[in-house]
Amino acid sequence: MSVRISPDKCIACTTCVVHCPVARVTPKFLGPRMIGPAYERFRLLGLAEDESLTYCANCKNCDITCPQGVPVSSINMLARAEHCRKHGAGLRDWVLAHGELQAKLLQLIPAGLKNFGMLNPVTRKVLDMLGIDRRAPLPPFAPKTFRQLARKLEQPSLPRKVVFFPGCYVDVYDPQTGLDMIWAFNRAGYEVITPEKFGCCGLPMIANGFWKDSRRQAKRNLAELARWREQGIPVVTGCPSCALMFRADLPEFFPDLVEKYGMGVLEDAQDFLLECVERDELPLDAAPAAARDLRIIYHAPCHLRAQGNGLPGLRLLRHLKGVTALNADAGCCGISGSYGFKKEKYDIAQEIGAELFHTVRESGAAFAASECGTCRVQIRHGSGKTALHPVSILRMRLEGRQPSGSQG
Ligand code: SF4
Ligand code: SF4
Asked: Is residue 126 part of a domain?
């Protein structure tokens, strides 16, 4: 691993420290300035790593707020990868980093049996000993993956095409959100292609220190993206973390691959649909007359805010007739992918998300909405309210159904 990022742009202003959700709730983490640019200088001299590095959640709030544009989270993830290369990573972190691979290995086992095997109290106790907190809201496997369902789905033949990158959360745990996405694109006049060659974006691997595995995913995904780019077909995703990984992390971590295959851009599916609405290609004011007024509270994932692209999911919801969509604007939910599942981090994650959970509970909203799958899991766990992807709410609304509350 040869990539390093210079810490020299840091002027020690401590803005990032004020906005770091982890440093706010625990003294176990020395904070972004210390663990990022300050410690990087020691690392470059070959001095020992500080163990509190493992407490960085890779939420990117430091990057969002740094006036100098220091990519603190990337400095941290590179340092973590180097630490894991030298000292090895544990089994718990391997399990949390490779959800897609596990789903593939277990694909012949029926979902009911898998979920019983993974989520019964005895297994949870074993997982707890392994370092996955027994209270953590691990999502159950879906009976069929999104890709299996999409393969059998009959779409109308439409002249305009769009490629959909589901991300592993939608593929393995929440295929309904992917199907809702296809429905919305079909309605906007696009046939949706779901290539088999795309895999996990590699972010869970980076966050857990598995550099080589993330690089392998980057190579595979960038090659596939280049194929669609050459055909002039846009590639979209509903997951902000996948989009951010391609937009910001891959060029920083794997510049040689980006040079070889070109910049891989996943367009924000919500933004894409919003443009369709603004061109009158996707009418959203056509909710059946019987649909009751609906109050929704929306949570913006940190990885969406880090892209500086506004809140297209919230804007989509606000186009829906009879829907009042509030912006929770209550900071990070705490989960950061699988961070909040870890035994030593579960309580930290709950404390980080406490303000959001309170805001959601007190909002009087029927449902919460967020683009990120694990944010939805965490919101439901912390607030007791069902959380759905904005596009799922859009579909239910336009079909005249009330959200069923079954999705994570
Ligand atoms: S990525 Fe998040 S947890 Fe890590 S240092 Fe930055 S703000 Fe703190
Ligand atoms: S990383 Fe950025 S925000 Fe943090 S102390 Fe340095 S200059 Fe300030």
From this structure: no
* pTM exceeding the 0.85 threshold for the entire prediction: yes
Q: Which residues line ligand 1 (CB under 6 A)?
A: 20, 22-23, 32, 56-62, 72-73, 76
Q: Are 141 and 115 in contact (CB under 8 A)?
A: yes
In a domain, 387, yes or no: yes
- Residue 27 one-letter amino acid: P
Q: The domain containing residue 74 runs over which residues?
A: 15-87
Nearest CA among 226, 371, 236 for reference residue 312: 371
- Structurally, how many domains does the chain consist of? 2
Number of CB atoms found within 10 A of residue 274's CB: 19
Please work out, in degrees rounded to the nearest 5, the angle formed at the alpha carbon of residue 394 by the alpha carbons of 393 and 398. 115
- Domain presence at residue 192: no
116-144 residue pLDDT tens: 888 899 999 999 999 999 999 999 999 99
CA distance 135 to 150: 33
Ligand 2 atom nearest residue 69's Cα? 2
C-alpha 194/C-alpha 165 separation (Å) is 7
pLDDT of residue 2: 60
pLDDT (0 to 100) of residue 288: 63
Distance 66 CA to ligand 2 centre (A): 5
142 lines ligand 2 (CB under 6 A): no
Residue 95 lies in a domain: no
| C-alpha distances in Å from residue 59, one per residue of 32, 151, 182, 260, 332 | 11, 34, 29, 28, 8
pLDDT digits (tens, 9 = 90+) for 371-396: 999 999 999 999 999 999 999 999 99
What are the residue ranges in the chain where pLDDT is below 50?
Answer: 405-408
CB-ligand 2 contact for 37 (6 Å cutoff): yes
